[in-house]
Amino acid sequence: HVQLVESGGGSVQVGGSLRLSCAASGITLNTSCMGWFRQRPGWEAEGVAAIRVDGPTSYPDSVKGRFIISKDNAKNTLYLQMNNLMPDDTAMYYCAAPDRGISCYYRRVVDFDFRGQGTQVTVS
């Protein structure tokens, strides 16, 4: 049974930073692609980061240079460091993992099979 639990969201001023965490169980991060996606009101879900088993990462241009995805295999925890936050980053953020062979690329994160309950990020 795969469980993903996000934390670390909150309210922050424009230009501020937050670090999201995703504690995983039932899946081991050192053998699984992982990613983050967000859901903004009125918008389609959007993948914002992905990290492959061997470490390479991918991001859309909208967050590249501001967001950093990383993982701690020993803690089985995924992270998303978000810097220079802007109002358009306001969204519910979810971590996700695939249950099948799927391209480990940020655009595909919204199609991953497992996802957490999400954590809200508000930038104002």
Account of the protein in words:
The structure is a single chain. The strands form two sheets. Strands 2, 4, 5, 6, 9, 10 and 11 form a seven-stranded mixed beta sheet that branches. It is built from no helices and eleven strands. With 124 residues, it is mainly beta. 0% of the residues lie in helices and 45% in strands.
Secondary structure: elements and pairs:
Elements: E1 3-7, E2 10-12, E3 18-25, E4 34-39, E5 46-51, E6 57-58, E7 67-72, E8 77-82, E9 91-97, E10 114-115, E11 119-123
Parallel strand pairs: 2-11
Antiparallel strand pairs: 1-3, 3-8, 4-5, 4-9, 5-6, 7-8, 9-10, 9-11
Helix content: under 10%
Describe the global form: globular
Strand content: over 45%
Q: How confident overall, as mean pLDDT?
A: 96
Number of strands: 11
Q: Given the structure, what is the number of helices?
A: 0
Low-confidence stretches: none
Q: Tell me the series of helices and strands, N- to C-terminal.
A: EEEEEEEEEEE
Structural class: mainly beta
Gyration radius, to the nearest Å?
A: 13 Å
Distance between the termini: 37 Å
Question: Can you summarize the main beta sheet?
Answer: 7 strands, mixed
